[in-house]
Amino acid sequence: MVSHHGSNSHQAGESSPLLQHHGTHTLTDGIAHEGESGRSGFHPRHFFAVCWRSSSNVSKYVNVLWPAALVAVILYFATNAHIGIFVASYIAMVPAANLLGFAGQEFARKLPKVAGILIETTFGSIVEIVLFVVLIVKHKEEEGNGDEGNMIPIIQAAILGSILTNLLLCLGLCFFMGGIRQHKSNQKFHAIVSEVGNGLLLVAAFGLLIPSAFYSALKSETVQAASDKLTSGKLQHDILRISQMTSIVLIVAFFLYLVYCCTSAHSIFDEVIEADEHGDLDHEEDMKKQKLTMTECLLAITIAIALVVLLLIILVDQIEDVVEAGVPDQFLGLILLPLVEKAAEHLTAIDEAWDGVMNVALYHCLGPSIQTALFNAPLVVIVGWLIGKPMDLNFEIFMIGLLVLSILVVGNFLRDQESNWLEGALLVIVYVVIAIASFYYPDPDVATSNGIGI
User: Which residues cross the membrane (predicted)?
Assistant: First the structure.
């Protein structure tokens, strides 16, 4: 079990980072031995073989979906079959995101543990960042709230949906799969991983809640036009400014989190994660796998990013037609988009939980949620600010309520530093209930609990 390896196998190393000693293995230029390929340069046959193998059997099976990328591109340039294009590009995003996640993972193996996981999480978030930026660039301000061309409600739903997908679906499946494989006792994880993660999520939720709370408190006081009173236009302007300033503060909080992980608690995180990886049920098998060289890592990352950008542009171009076909804005943003752009991270985390590496799996669930709340969401607000698009953090009260309640539920499950398959199943059930509710939630032009005409 994780706790057994963490407390016994590495007791002697608790006073220093475990990466500094590995028996006969050595570190070369800061590259950990498990990340070394034993080769250099680019070898096409080896490159494609390693990329096809991917990080796990589940990830490898995802590669059979690659033909969907070719279908999406052909349909996009040769037809007007918008629904078919959306479906093909949606499916193709899974292997593309998986390639980016795998390449990021291979690159991260060549770095110290904590820095590697942070970089791996960042590469996993590239898909999300590109999605948000493409959506805000495509937003048409003049169209108005709830009309064709208004992408802001979808972006806002995707922001919260990304966090909920990680906290409920991914974490729930990790608890469930880990609990099923090792059902004789609860899975254990270290307090520093759960406490830091849950604390940051609460702070992030507070920051995201402020603009919505501000609007809710004042919307009944607005008047149509008055020189000395609060008008709807002034309230909208204030919400936008609050969102922009809050975004800057949240990004500062994210960099403080990075500094904390890489300095203040670096050795603690290193030891926890190192102990987990050596307690991996498939550790020896993973060590024997062939690795990518640094050149091949960078090439794979470049190819994956180019494919992700292309597929996301194709995907976003079809959103208006998909909404017109009957898929609600909130369901599209809250459920469908987060599912596909987080696919690679979810597969990695679930595979780690199945192998008994719960601290690393937990890190892969909480880390992306923290990055979405503290960096990706504020970043799209700032990008909108720079290009003149009124992107704010004034979420629907319904969605804010879902976020806060989900963080509280997850925090309650993390409190005892143990998990089991039942807790995982309950988290997944909560996610399914949210998906059902979001499908029936009215579009922004109808549901205006916190909507302001743009």
Answer: 61-77, 83-102, 114-137, 157-178, 199-218, 238-260, 297-316, 393-414, 421-441
Taking the C-alpha atoms of residue 360 and residue 418, their distance in angstroms, rounded to an integer, is 14
* Average pLDDT of the segment spanning 246-275: 75
Between CA 425 and CA 286 the distance in angstroms is 28
Q: Indicate the angle between helix axes 377-387 and 113-138, nearest 10 degrees.
A: 40
Express each pLDDT in 27-75 by its tens digit. 334 444 444 555 667 778 888 888 888 777 777 888 899 999 999 999 9
Q: What angle do CA 104, 110, 111 make, to 5 degrees?
A: 95
Q: DSSP for 153-198? A: HHHHHHHHHHHHIIIIIIHHHHHHHHHHHTTTS-EE--HHHHHHHH
Residues 193, 196: Cα–Cα separation, whole Å: 6
**Which H or E run contains 188?**
strand 187-188
Weakest mean pLDDT among 118-122, 331-335, 381-385: 118-122
Q: Write the single-letter amino acid at 411.
A: G
Nearest residue to 257 (alpha-carbon basis) of 206, 188, 211, 203: 203
CA 184 to chain centre: 31
Domains with residue ranges and CATH for the chain: 2-8+21-440 (1.20.1420.30)
C-alpha pair distances (Å), 250 with each of 210, 237, 243:
12, 20, 10
Dihedral angle sign, alpha carbons of residues 378, 384, 390, 391: negative
Q: What's the confidence (pLDDT) of residue 446?
A: 43
Residue 80, judged by CB atoms within 10 A of its CB (0-12, 13-18, 19+), counts as: exposed
* Cα 452 from chain centre: 28
Calculate mean pLDDT across residues 273-296: 66
C-alpha–C-alpha distance, residues 58 and 431, integer Å: 22
How far is the C-alpha of 317 from the C-alpha of 73, rounded, in Å? 12
Average pLDDT, rounded, for the chain: 79
Give the separation between CA 238 and CA 222, rounded to whole angstroms. Answer: 12
3-class DSSP state of 46: helix
Q: Which pLDDT tens digit goes with each residue over 347-371?
A: 888 888 888 888 888 878 888 888 8
For 397, list phi and psi in degrees, rounded to 5. -55, -35
At 351 the pLDDT is 83
Distance CA 254, CA 370 (A): 8
* Residue 144 DSSP class: -
pLDDT of 1 above 60: no
Per the DSSP assignment, residues forming a β-bridge with 1 are: none
Dihedral angle at the C-alpha atoms of 64, 70, 72, 77, nearest 10 degrees? 180
> CB-hemisphere CA count at 13 Å for 263?
6
Residue type at position 120:
E
